[in-house]
């Protein structure tokens, strides 16, 4: 009889290890996108992946921006929540995985009861005591049809998807911090341009006022100059407001105040440009985007859930067993001859559930189909984002060169209009048009510089962290 517990344990583990799975075989859905990138794209399907790809520190080269990103990675609350969600789902996975093996527990018990005198054998009150100690497990399910294993697989895929979601949150944070900082510098530059414009228009207004008093200029010219001056003053106040709002948003993203020793950069040209995307990147980069990988992990989880739903149609076997000793005296509890054991197998066979298991299976299959559609849509969205960024990138150099040339021409035109007006050749209306054109051209040039950097950020995010962070395809801790 002493060999019985060991035989039961051996049989239990052999049955658990030989459990089958009723989940359908997983096959990755075909990507519902063209096999090539949009015309004008720089990605090459035949190109090998670079051996040494840059990290985000290499992409964001500006030292001030790096400091801001480091601060955000350490203090941003949204990212902190995403990382805590990883820990939460990891714990839930470990809880589910524990069901694969029996939970062994030890128990000690004293059972004392009093028997009244009129019921006692000797006509006396009797106190009966019994002591017991045991080691065993209760209601352990033999996973013959893979129900528990498939639920564990689903929990694992959920954990991996949440980990990828955290990577997406990290990439989004990097891009958002960089975007807000670049917008802040651009608004500072526009504020400076507008304030200088306001000072120049104010001087022009005072000059025309003096000319009006001398009878050389008309009142119309005075009012036109005044209108230009007040327009610039209004725009300067508007840009000052935007600068303050940019700083507030940056504070929120950083999760901490701006460092006191941070240089106040006021021109986009003083910010080191973002690293450009190299030519000939492999075309499978979209498969490395964390949001696509997260969608696929969820799909795998729903696929495993089908196996758990199918297992509900088959018998389930649970075991309860223990080893221990029982004695009427505590001092004899662990003496020879007091040993005891019990073994309680239980089998359940579903007979009539009024369609419950069928409905659960239908629900699991529908969830899997929804996950397939979600996975495919995620790929399509990623392809569109890359295509849009590449299309914009193809024209970026030409747009920037045109804006630079337009600014130069507008500045020359303004100077000529001023000279001709001062010489009495042209009316002040020509000066008015030329000055507005020059002011708008400088604003447009700053906007194009910002657009170039924003396009690099968009492509960085669209490629799943540029083309580096996700290259390994592993599931290690976030950097």
Question: Brief overview, please?
Answer:
The chain is α+β, with helices and mostly antiparallel strands. It has nine helices and four strands, in the order ααααββαααββαα.
Keywords for this entry:
479 residues, alpha+beta, Outer membrane efflux proteins (OEP), 2 domains, 4-stranded antiparallel sheet, 9 helices, 4 strands, disordered C terminus
Protein architecture, described:
By secondary structure, the protein is of the alpha+beta class. The protein has 9 helices and 4 strands; from the N terminus they run ααααββαααββαα. The chain has 2 domains: 4-100 and 145-314 and 358-462, Outer membrane efflux proteins (OEP) (Up-down Bundle); 104-142 and 321-349, Outer membrane efflux proteins (OEP), CATH 2.20.200.10. Helices cover 58% and strands 10% of the residues. It has a 4-stranded antiparallel β-sheet with strand order 1-2-3-4, covered by helices on one side. α4 (77-97) packs antiparallel against α5, α5 (147-213) runs antiparallel to α9 (428-462) and α8 (356-422) runs antiparallel to α9 (428-462).
């Amino acid at each position: 009889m002493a060999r019985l517990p060991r035989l039961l344990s051996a049989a239990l583990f052999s049955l658990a290890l030989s459990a089958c799975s009723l989940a359908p075989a997983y096959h990755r859905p075909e990507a519902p996108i063209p096999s090539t990138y949009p015309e004008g794209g720089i990605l090459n399907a035949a190109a090998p992946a670079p051996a040494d790809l840059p990290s985000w520190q290499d992409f964001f080269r500006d030292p001030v921006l790096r400091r801001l990103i480091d601060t955000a990675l350490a203090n941003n609350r949204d990212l902190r929540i995403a990382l805590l969600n990883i820990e939460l789902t990891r714990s839930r996975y470990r809880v589910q995985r524990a069901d694969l093996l029996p939970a062994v527990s030890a128990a000690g018990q004293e059972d004392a009861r009093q028997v009244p005198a009129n019921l006692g054998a000797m006509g006396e009150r009797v106190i009966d005591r019994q002591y017991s100690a045991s080691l065993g497990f209760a209601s352990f399910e033999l996973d013959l049809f893979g129900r528990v294993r498939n639920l564990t697989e689903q929990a694992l895929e959920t954990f991996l998807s949440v980990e990828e979601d955290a990577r997406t949150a990290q990439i989004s944070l990097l891009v958002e911090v960089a975007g807000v900082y670049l917008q802040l510098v651009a608004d500072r530059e526009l504020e400076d341009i507008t304030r200088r414009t306001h000072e120049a228009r104010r001087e022009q207004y005072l000059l025309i006022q003096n000319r009006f008093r001398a009878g050389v200029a008309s009142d119309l010219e005075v009012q036109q100059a005044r209108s230009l001056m007040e327009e610039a003053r209004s725009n300067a106040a508007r840009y000052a407001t935007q600068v303050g709002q940019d700083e507030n948003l940056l504070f929120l993203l950083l999760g901490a105040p701006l460092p006191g020793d941070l240089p106040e950069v006021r021109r986009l040209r003083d910010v080191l440009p973002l690293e450009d995307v190299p030519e000939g990147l492999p075309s499978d980069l979209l498969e490395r985007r964390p949001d696509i990988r997260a969608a696929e992990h969820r799909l795998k989880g729903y696929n495993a859930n089908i196996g758990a739903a199918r297992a509900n149609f088959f018998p389930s076997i649970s075991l309860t067993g223990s080893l221990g000793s029982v004695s009427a005296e505590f001092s004899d509890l662990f003496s020879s001859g007091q040993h005891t054991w019990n073994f309680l197998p239980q089998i359940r066979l579903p007979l009539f559930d009024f369609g419950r298991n069928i409905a659960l299976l239908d629900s699991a299959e529908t969830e899997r189909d929804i996950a397939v559609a979600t996975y495919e849509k995620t790929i399509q969205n990623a392809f569109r984002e890359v295509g849009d960024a590449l299309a914009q990138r193809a024209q970026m150099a030409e747009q920037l060169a045109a804006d630079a040339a337009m600014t130069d021409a507008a500045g020359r035109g303004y100077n000529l209009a001023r000279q001709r007006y001062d010489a009495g050749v042209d009316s002040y209306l020509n000066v008015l048009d030329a000055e507005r054109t020059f002011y708008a051209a400088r604003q447009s040039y700053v906007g194009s510089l910002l657009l170039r950097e924003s396009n690099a950020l968009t492509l960085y995010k669209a490629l799943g962290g540029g083309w580096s962070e996700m290259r390994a395809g592993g599931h290690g801790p976030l950097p």
